[in-house]
Write a structure and sequence with these properties.
InterPro entries: DUF247_pln. 52% of the residues lie in helices and 0% in strands. With 311 residues, the protein is an all-alpha fold. It folds into two domains: 231 residues, no CATH class; 48 residues, no CATH class. It starts with a helix and ends with a helix. The relative contact order is 0.11.
């Protein structure tokens, strides 16, 4: 009898232990749109999904190699506050506005950001968000560029910065960018360009090099990568991005494979080209002045990264 009682007690202890570990909510929010790329998708070339120059958002924030660009972010934030384009341009206003939406911000990311305190997370959103909008304004000459700004002074930065801005793991929620943008927008005529247009203008000149378009302001964007996807899938832009083509397409494909709310527009496009093009000779047959598909070729004229990306 005593032995049976002991067994019951042990079972109850184990049951209590398991009960404490139970998770009442899904580890991925329905609103999640900024994902860690799964190992099955990154196995062919992990470097195509990880930033090399600048970390945006919480996923890569603690890596030592980004200390230089972390200082640039803080310098940009200081310049923005010192310029004070609006009465709302203050750290207190930025923090208050982001903190009011912190739950929605957290839901955009995977479970691991829950390891951060709310203050740590809000700090990342404010510093990185202000950096991005200040950078786009400098790029558009709305804000004068400093002669000692390394992001515009050193030509090699252009390629790596464009690549890092369009990584799935390196995104900020669009509403964070828009919130900070609106808090710091002036009434000057030359600055009355929407955030989506400023962002597109930057990628247009530094990546796509095609005819300039006016961005449809009715697009519902989730982040910068989603903005470019929306523009491409609506036929507003031919995907002629060359320098960073493989990284760009792989991250778009990973995004569609992680977010079930999206259709498979980019995946379908990639699958179509994968079936159509098997050699440089095939490429010559389908290339047109408007649609330059050379971005899909690897060394030796082999179209293979699409096959890997779709596996």
């Amino acid at each position: 009898m005593m032995e049976k009682q002991i067994n019951i007690d042990v079972d109850q202890v184990l049951a209590s232990s398991i009960r404490r570990k139970l998770v009442q909510n899904s580890p991925v929010s329905a609103g999640c749109c900024i994902f860690r790329v799964p190992n099955t998708l990154r196995k062919h070339n992990e470097q195509l999904f990880e930033p090399t120059f600048i970390s945006i958002g919480p996923y890569h924030r603690d890596i030592q190699k980004f200390q230089f660009t972390e200082k640039i972010k803080l310098w940009y934030l200081d310049c923005l506050i010192a310029r004070a384009p609006t009465p709302e341009t203050s750290l207190e206003c930025f923090i208050k506005s982001i903190r009011a939406n912190v739950k929605s911000c957290l839901e955009c990311y995977g479970e691991e950001v829950l390891k951060l305190t709310n203050d740590e997370f809000v700090e990342i959103m404010v510093i990185d968000g202000c950096f991005i909008i200040e950078f786009f304004r400098r790029n558009a000459n709305i804000v004068p560029k400093s002669m000692d700004d390394p992001l515009f002074k050193m030509p090699w930065v252009r390629k790596v910065l464009v690549t890092d801005f369009l990584l799935l793991e390196n995104q900020l929620p669009w509403f964070v960018l828009e919130c900070l943008f609106n808090l710091t927008e002036t009434s000057h005529d030359e600055e009355r360009r929407p955030l989506s247009q400023l962002a597109y203008d930057y990628f247009h000149w530094n990546a796509f090099k095609t005819e300039m378009i006016e961005v449809n302001q009715r697009l519902q964007n989730k982040h910068l990568l989603d903005l470019l996807r929306n523009i491409i899938l609506r036929g507003s832009e031919d995907p002629q991005e060359k320098d960073n083509a493989e990284s760009f397409f792989r991250n778009l494909i990973a995004y569609e494979q992680c977010d079930r709310s999206l259709n498979d527009g980019v995946i379908a496009y990639a699958a179509f080209l994968d079936n159509l093009i098997n050699s440089s000779e095939d490429l010559d047959l389908v290339s047109t002045p408007k649609g330059n598909y050379n971005l899909l070729l690897e060394h030796g004229g082999r179209v293979c990264f699409l096959q890997q990306a779709l596996q």
